[in-house]
Amino acid sequence: MNQSKVAANSAVVSDDLLRRYDVSGPRYTSYPTADRFVEAFRADDYAQALRLRRGGTAAMALPLSLYVHIPFCESLCYYCACNKIITKHHEKSAEYLRYLSREVDLHVAQIGQGQSVSQLHLGGGSPTFLTDDELAELMAMLQRNFRFAPGGEYSIEIDPRTVDAKRLDTLATLGFNRLSFGVQDFDPAVQKAVHRVQPVEQVFELVAAARARGFESINVDLIYGLPQQSPESFDRTLAQVVALRPDRIALYAYAHLPERFKPQRRIITLELPSGGAKISMLSQSLRAFAQASYVYVGMDHFALPDDSLAVAKRQGRLHRNFQGYSTQPDCDLIALGVSSIGRIGATYSQNAKTLDEYYDALDHGRFPVVRGLALSRDDLVRRAVVMALMCQGELQFESIDLSYLIDFRTYFAAELQSLVALQEQGLVELSTSGIEVTARGWFFVRAVAMVFDRYLQADQTRARFSKII
User: Fold this and answer.
1) Is the pLDDT reported for residue 466 higher than 80?
2) Buried b / exposed e across 285-303, counting CB within 10 Å, b at 16+?
3) pLDDT band for position 468 (50/70/90)?
4) Is the pLDDT of residue 9 over 50?
5) Residues linked to residue 58 through DSSP beta bridges, in sequence order
6) Is residue 460 over pLDDT 70?
7) Among 247, 282, 395, 464, which residue is least crowded by beta carbons within 10 Å?
8) Boundary (domain end) residue, out of 276, 309, 333
9) pLDDT digits (tens, 9 = 90+) for 299-310
10) 442-468 residues labelled b (16+ CB within 10 A) or e (exposed)
């Protein structure tokens, strides 16, 4: 993508355009998306995928990505749609670590010990629910079985209420070089409404301490559309975040789905902002971050110009996996822990969502995989198209033709016709040789990718997804 297209901050995004695309759609951390996984894909299929990886020289040469899901939280956040277990019984985490070790052993038996890892992410739940000794035990176990490459991205999600400066020292010593702070909103009334009270001063002190300890990148998560929020209150939060100046910002739209996520039933529906107010908050956010020199990386993510994510965007080196955008090369992802989702070769897999089922599988010496997907040839072609659009913002027909032995313009004739409307809105540019997402279109890149989603176009059922902007 040329530099004029990369400079998405200069694009004019009207409130009218934001309203037009205030629709639901996949986040495309994978294609096909996780809702397409089937229970016919089980532990034996996953084991076979691992064996095929070990037998494939090219795949084995690429470093792995690791994701570890820590499901425990001491306190319930009402907006949360993650797989979590609310408990104050910390002895549960010791048992969980023992089972994580068993799961790692099963992987090592299939792919061998010492495989190179260039990316690790601890998510949850609250990974900092674990004690310092437990975090040390977990990292030691992973480092015994995998080889962590120098210069990799090793990150952990932080609940600011569970850490202090001393804990940050421990995380640095253990090898973490990136932190993600869950902030959501700094307004006290909003925090009370979602049952997540954390003073702004606490977050500022922790970020300052993290910088002093040399963490390479600090991310802050924000959510707009929460109860008690208004454009005026969120403007104050935006000003505080800009003053905090994290290296990266993830800005998510709250999706109120109480019928699917039980904790959300505690949210008072009448306290939720209107659709118009949410559009205003998004518009304000885009403007505030652009004025503060943040680069819009794409898909809710912003980064300072010298952050590695923004650099990768400029250089066309962005990738996507189940954690979102990444600077690491496209690679297999081993996902450990309850409910976690991984990718090995042309397969996706997901672990059991309950501790009982997860533990039972491991007690019987089986991978705890309960569903997944073996990708078809059409899936692979479309994945290449979707990821090129989502990550590079452009696609050359010839590259797909040569890689998959198709004629792009014939294979995707209907999709190209659908893109004409997006071209008329200034979101894409079509040529005889390819597709390019415009600077304005980068804000709506999910809408562009959705055109090539065969499953989505077939059923048009989008209510289960978040809004695409």
Assistant:
1) no
2) bbebbbebebbbbbbbbbb
3) low
4) no
5) none
6) no
7) 464
8) 333
9) 789 999 999 999
10) bbbbbbbbbbbbeebeeeeeeeebbbb
Q: How many domains does the chain have?
A: 2
* 259 lies in the same domain as 144: yes
pTM of the predicted structure, to 2 decimals: 0.91
Amino acid at the residue 327: T
Distance, in Å, from the CA atom of 301 to the CA atom of 151, rounded to the nearest integer, reads 22
How confident is the model over 385-406, as pLDDT tens digits? Answer: 999 999 999 999 999 999 999 9
Residue range of the domain that includes 319:
34-333
Which residues partner with 115 through β-bridges? Answer: 146
Q: Which residue has the tokens 């005889």?
A: 432
Using an 8 Å Cβ cutoff, are 467 and 224 in contact? no
* 115 and 206 housed in the same domain: yes
Looking at the structure, tell me whether residues 264 and 403 fall in a common domain: no
Amino acid at 7: A
Sign of CA dihedral 21, 26, 32, 37: negative
195 & 279 share domain:
yes
Residues 16 and 58 in one domain: no
Q: Same domain for 313 and 433?
A: no
- The enclosing domain of 468 has a CATH number of 1.10.10.920
